[in-house]
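Standup, Tuesday
Yesterday: got the pipeline producing structure tokens again.
Today: sanity-check two examples.
Blockers: none.

Example 1:
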Amino acid sequence: MTKLKDIPVTLESHLNALPDLPPTAWPNAPAFDFEADTLYLRPQISVGRNAAIGTADSDSSLHNGMYQIDIFIPKGVGVKIGVDEAQRIADHFPKGLELNTTAGKLKISNADIESSGTNLGSHYQISLLISYTTVIS
């Protein structure tokens, strides 16, 4: 079974295994030096729902959550590069992928690109939402 604290570590480790990954920004990389012409990522975990499984006295639950990766693309570079990067990351988290945590399996349910480029002024933002399920104790 997975502990809640294992989830971000497992997902981040899998993301970081992808070659040629852009730099990570915000709260994940406090030393990030923002450059206006740089494509960068902002991964974050969204709190999921837990549902008890097993007997009433069991302390295990099924946990569903979301790993959101925002891709920021400099305005002069073009949105297509960000969409391509989002798709490359989504392909790295295919539906059905099982990742090992220190205490069990975390299964990817889906990876969807949810935005085709929100204009933020100097950058566009594309959001990739990765759904996962695991058992926690």
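Example 2:
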Amino acid sequence: MHEKHKHKEMRKTMIHVIFKNLESSPLARESTLERFAVILDKFPDLEKSRIKITLEMKNSPIQAGPDLFSVKAQISGGKYRNIRVEKSAQSLYIALADVIDHMLELLNRCGDRNRVKARKNARRFNFNVNLRLNET
């Protein structure tokens, strides 16, 4: 099997696309997987996580009006665990684009927070080492 196809197959197993109140569509599934592949390329640590994406159509049987599409993405396990994003729009693909944008922001912020903590711990370690060296 070609390396590129192996990588694509592996990603399909860790990303689960669920359709709720919406007919399953291969086009929507592939579009969702392609969009999340961009996130996986930018954040390789997500390869160890499970990503659950729910595509949902919300419509009211009581009130007339346009349907509302909702996309929920939840990351569990790994470095970026317990991240959940939900967006709604009148188009499924607009809601999906909003989720991707917000997810990128959250993952970047989480990565920044981890870098700041690591830098702080390194400074604290260097400070303690310098104190001990000066005492002797």
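Quick observation on example 2: The CA atoms of residues 40 and 47 lie 7 Å apart. The longest strand covers residues 50-58.
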